[in-house]
Amino acid sequence: MNQLNGYVASSAQPTGTLPSNDYRFICQIPQLEMTNNEALKTSDQNPFSGQ
Q: Distance (Å, rounded) from C-alpha 23 to C-alpha 40?
């Protein structure tokens, strides 16, 4: 939670935002799924790995 933009933990009602194109919002396809699923190609993997 501390990584959200504008998040203040000491606030009475803490809120924060996460832009829709933020790398933290985009999930990777698990490697085991990529290995076992013949319908998936390397190009199907999401491009962001965390930064």
A: 21
| pLDDT tens-digit series, residues 13-51 | 877 777 777 777 778 889 999 999 999 998 888 776 655
Enter the pTM of the model. Answer: 0.47
Residue 49 near residue 28, CB atoms below 8 Å: yes
What number of H helices and E strands is found in the chain?
1, 0
Answer for the pair 5, 17: CB distance below 8 angstroms, yes or no. Answer: yes
15's tokens: 């809120």
Rounded CA-CA distance 35/22 in Å is: 26
Give 4's pLDDT tier (boundaries 50, 70, 90). confident
